[in-house]
Amino acid sequence: MDLDQSGFGWQKTRVYLGPSLGWVESQVRASRTITTAGTFNVNPGDSIIFIPVAGSVQILLPDVRAWIQEPAYQPATGFERAIWIKDLGQAAFFPRTVTPFGSQQIDGLAQSFQIVQNRQLMRLYPMIDMTGWFSG
Question: What is the pTM of this model?
Answer without folding.
Answer: 0.77
